[in-house]
Design a protein that fits this description.
Number of helices of chain A: 12
CATH topology of chain B: Rossmann fold
Radius of gyration of chain A: 23 Å
Largest interface: A-C, 85 and 84 residues
Helix content of chain B: 25-40%
Mean pLDDT of chain A: 88
Helix content of chain A: over 70%
Low-confidence stretches of chain B: none
Order of helices and strands of chain A: HHHHHHHHHHHH
CATH superfamily of the largest domain in chain A: MetI-like
Order of helices and strands of chain B: EEEHEEHEHHHHEHEHEE
CATH class of chain B: Alpha Beta
Structural class of chain B: alpha/beta
Chains: A mainly alpha, B alpha/beta, C mainly alpha
Largest sheet of chain A: none
Structural class of chain A: mainly alpha
Number of strands of chain A: 0
Oligomer: heterotrimer
Largest sheet of chain B: 6 strands, mixed
Number of helices of chain B: 8
CATH class of the largest domain in chain A: Mainly Alpha
CATH topology of the largest domain in chain A: MetI-like fold
Mean pLDDT of chain B: 89
Shape of chain B: globular
CATH superfamily of chain B: P-loop containing nucleotide triphosphate hydrolases
Chain lengths: 294, 234, 282
Amino acid sequence: MGKNVWDMLLGFFAWCCAILLAGSMILIIGFLILKGYKAISLELIFANTSPLDALLFKQQVFGGLFPAMVGTFFLILLSMGFALPLGLASGIFLAEYAPGSIKKIFSLCFDILAGVPSIVIGLFGFSITILLHHSFNSQIFPCLLISALSLAFLVLPYIIKTTQVALESIPLLIRLTAPSLGATKLENIFLVLLPASISDITSGIVLAIGRCAEDTAVIMLTGVVAVAGIPKSIFSGFEALPFYIYYIASEYSDQSELMKGYGAAIILLLICSGLFGISHWGKNRLTAKTRFNY
Amino acid sequence: MGKKQIKIQIKDLGFYYKNQQIFENICIEFENNSITTISGPSGQGKSSFLMALNRLWESIEGAKVKGTIRMDFGKGFENIYHKNYSVTKLRQRVGMVFQVPNPLPMSIYKNIEFPLKLRGEKNKTIIAEKVEQTLIESFLWEEVKDRLFTDAGLLSGGQQQRLCIARALVLEPQVLLLDEPTSSLDEKSVQVIEDLLLKLKKKCTIILVSHHIDQVDRIADNKLVLSDRRLVQH
Amino acid sequence: MQHREHIAGIIFWGATVLSAGVTLAVLVFMVILSLPIIKNDMILEVLMGPWSPDYGLFGILPMIVGTLCIALLSLVFSFPVSLGCSIFIEIIRPGKPGRFLKKFVRLMTAVPTVIYGFVGVFLLVPHVRGFVSHGSGMCILSASLMLGLVISPTMILFFSQSFARVPKTYLNAVDALGGTQFQKFIYLLFPQAWPGILTGIILAFGRAMGDTLIALMISGNSVMLPTSPLDSARTLTAHIAMIIAADFGSIEFKTIFLCGGILYLLTSFGILLARFSAGKQN
């Protein structure tokens, strides 16, 4: 009889923790939505400019979230442009070419990189700017390019690990099929192995995109500003959603600005959970299609 | 009795996996156009022996091979472990069929087309001809001719295995290695595949790992046993 | 064809070396840019002293303490809750409710930290202020509460995985001997999963030390050495974010690279520790 009391206590403890966690999250998200849903409108994003003109870059948007959203978009595009080729190639090397001992050393290296705080990565990006400024062109300042590069460093270890793990989890029988038919290593990788792991790799990439969209610390040190409009070139300053949210929290001057902050937070939340959803839904759908019969 | 033609000469072959010896000092010869079976307790290295013949073990980390293997592909004996010997060319002449059918995740047609594409064949007519030819040869054509472009994974186990045999045959290999090809199949499929192998004997030298005594008795010209790290006549 | 294979191999190798180079470069840059402080023999002063630029004091000790306090307190809040949740997922309700909570926890990782910070400022801080009835509400306590929530998913997922890895044969043995759920947990699951749990704790602690936004937005950023959880404090990360706006040539500015270097070494050490601990469960 006495034994059952402890079981009950354990269960009670577990339930309490689960409810506490879920409740806190619901409180946070609920608070945000409740306070901010009224702010969601086309006006929040495009202010006084017509959406069509804004989207075609015919007219600048003042006082709306559009420039920040465009900034975030270009940030993602550029940083993935840097990180994807480098990350995929490194992942392929680790999974398919590196012998055991070398693999361990590099893996540790990338684990360390993944653990470096994002602000330190941002500081690194800033240091690179200093270096470029002094050695090459004194016109180089923190800008979209530097931020994108730094974000690339931030997500690089995740892309590498995702690619590596995805390739390594392919069963031996599949790995040996193409070589037994006369395929070279490269042909095996591109014709069989990568297509077989495409769903896992893609979902990892989508998560990395989410990371780029939400990061604030890195871009704070490498070129993001509160007001800049649509970035004119990769060497110019730019706006970004997460920074806008941070900025509003500390510098809002009236209720309407605060409301815009809430609206921006909801939009960012939607973007990030949307990306998360795509990553997981995509994983399930694609795996079903390319399933090997083993 | 005419002089026997030797296809494969093996001297002092040893196989090591992660520094553990699997077998050593194997010396054997394989006759042309014959079926040789290899039986023996599991885990003794029969699959490793086959992989030594097409150098597939090189894709497995921790595996090592010692010794020489020479094969006669019509131009005299060639050392297949020579450092300049093209491994991809070797595998086009020495085909392999695995214990568990391993169709690639594509259509039946594309599966058979795959080795041809690897070798650089671009002519669609020739490809179509060869696909039909090997499927007929493998006793599979009638069953799949109307659904060549459907997923190969939808076929039954026996059909998939015949597909894998067809795929291995499309480059017209002179040696065919089979690792317990019928162990996961039903009786009817076993029968079909054994008939297929007997037919193929005329074009190929076949080395077959098999556990089934009846199968060995039915089709083997030469019976070997790999046990206690030695390969001996049955 | 041999040629193409060879070149491809070199390209892949080069990409990996380049990527690994980044890891090293970050540390190198931090060290090089902190050299003025090290060279001028100011290092001890900076590491141990208080921060008061007007008096020429550039010590980052308050920030080091701030980082450690907030990270530690958030771990104190988060560990029991995370443990409880992972027990819920793996032991108490491993069916639908457990899977649901696991998915929920995974979804939590998608929420940007700036959002936690934002809600912290407008929901948590006023309440802490009201509850404590002095100060602004921006203090170690507020930051640790929010940060605890942020690092929970890391621990929960790690703990769950560790519990799941305990071989079923052991569990069946305890069942067959008539053990209760609680006994199974205390005598088998927890001890067996402990290396994994420790790894989760270390990783979560690393994450907590490396967070910038939450500390920046709700810990108050005072430069005084904190003496209680209700004090405002500044972390190394927030310090970097704030001083970046200072005059580039000043000593003040150079301290941020030292902060960066310290953070790098702390988190790397944590990773090494975690690796070592993770190796133990196998």
